[in-house]
Design a protein that fits this description.
By secondary structure, the protein is of the alpha/beta class. Strands 7-6-5-8-9 form a five-stranded mixed β-sheet, with helices on one face. A two-stranded antiparallel ribbon has the order 1-2. It has a two-stranded antiparallel sheet with strand order 3-4. Helix 1 crosses helix 5.
Length: about 325
């Protein structure tokens, strides 16, 4: 009799959310590649217990068809080319998986891969034809191991699946922790920044000495980033001692950003930065939004990971004085 791999309800991937499983799977393959190894089927199912044997087989075959995945001599799966050579359109066309339009309970949505996958799905719910051809969301997802759209908390590895279902439904197991690549650099004590803003003006951080400066890393596809924009605009417009600058951390052209800002206007300058070559004096963001608060002398006073509020800024100003 074939072994039966029991899946508690809490660990099952809802129908229609296979794309979420695919994005997590790519993250696992990317991390394995960084360590110079492949992944066997049983190890994949242990790392991502939400995947069924049949879904894993189908996804692996789809990725193999577009030359993204291959088996080595030991039967382990390996990435066969860089993910920055693949667009979301490639994945969408080869898998024919639906893009979910509503949120449901998803297993492990709160670990780094889960949050990154949800951010990518959120991006895909924007005008689809325009977004599918962009490579950035796909690349940034597996690079959650390096860029991590959110920090990953250590977790215990799940126990191997039992061959027989337990008498009662077990508590949800915890997926194997995603080891994240350390940031290549940290934010300088007195960071500098001199770049051209979207409106064509030159932005020089040094020119704003004498005031508190809020340096906000964000992206148009990041829902929490969009949510905090009105509060940042109010800080910039209504506080004489505070100025804000938004660093758009994504692969986007100025005209597209200008169109976005027409629909989502802000009072502060926006600068587009290369997500693969961020400003040298700032650490590679390991989550979005990420906000740095600089004091009037230009010294780093505090960093916020996650949405920032006026109350949070005021609290840090009071603590620094």
């Amino acid at each position: 009799m074939a072994a039966f791999r029991y899946q508690p309800v809490e660990l099952r991937l809802p129908q229609g959310y296979e794309f979420y499983g695919l994005l997590r799977l790519l993250g696992r393959f990317h991390h394995a590649r960084l360590k110079g190894r492949g992944l066997a089927d049983d190890e994949i199912l242990r790392l991502e217990p939400m995947l069924t044997d049949s879904l894993l087989h189908d996804l692996a075959c789809n990725l193999q068809e577009i030359g993204l995945l291959r088996r080595d001599e030991q039967g382990e799966w390996l990435l066969s080319r860089d993910l920055d050579q693949v667009s979301l359109a490639d994945l969408y066309e080869c898998t024919q998986l639906s893009i979910p339009v509503a949120e449901k309970h998803l297993p492990y949505r709160d670990d780094s891969l889960g949050r990154a996958a949800l951010a990518a799905l959120d991006d895909l719910r924007l005008p689809l034809r325009e977004r599918l051809q962009r490579k950035t969301p796909l690349l940034l997802l597996p690079l959650a191991l390096a860029l991590a759209l959110a920090a990953c908390k250590p977790a215990q590895e799940p126990a191997p699946a039992s061959s027989q279902p337990p008498a009662q439904a077990p508590a949800p197991s915890t997926p194997a922790p995603v080891e994240e690549t350390p940031a290549e650099r940290t934010t300088a004590e007195f960071p500098t920044l001199k770049m051209k803003a979207v409106d064509g003006s030159e932005y020089d951080l040094a020119a704003h000495r004498g005031k508190w400066v809020v340096v906000n890393f964000w992206a148009t596809w990041c829902a929490p980033c969009r949510k905090e924009m009105p509060e940042l605009s109010a800080l910039h417009a209504m506080r004489s001692n505070i100025e804000v600058v938004g660093l758009a951390y994504e692969d986007i052209e100025a005209p597209e950003m200008q169109a976005f800002l027409t629909k989502h206007p802000v009072t502060y300058p926006i600068v587009i930065v290369d997500p693969f070559d961020p400003p040298a004096d700032f650490a590679t963001p390991r989550g979005l939004p990420l906000t740095h608060l600089l004091d009037p002398q230009g010294k780093l006073a505090h960093s916020f990971l996650g949405p920032v509020t006026a109350a949070g800024v005021d609290q840090q100003l009071a603590a620094s004085q």
